[in-house]
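User: Run a structure prediction on this.
Assistant: Running it now.
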Amino acid sequence: MDAFSQDSLIRIGRLIEMGVATGVAALTITRSRPLRPVRDWVRSKSDWWGELISCPYCMAHWVAAVFSIWSFATWGRPRPITGVLIWLVTVGLGSVSAKSIYLAIIVILPTKSEGGERGKPEIIPKAAA
């Protein structure tokens, strides 16, 4: 494997890592119980900021922007369009990973407070034929 291919694979791996990290960070900020008082306080001060801090997709854009700026600064001065592409790919991967994690937690592993028993999947009734 030549040096160019190895460097490209490392960068693709870093993009995937940033995408998953973006999804986890956005989901933690927008859905976790420990941050609920912060979200409620922000929502009481401003509808716009309250929506931002409560929407995983919206928050993923800002988290991805921070990760992209950090990545852009450490990748050896790529062209500006590369920074925009890194941001967009990170947002996309972050949104997909956040949704996947959210569905896995809420649908597959419901907690007692959400109407199911911990560790047991919720049984969804079949539609009448």
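The chain has one domain: 10-114.
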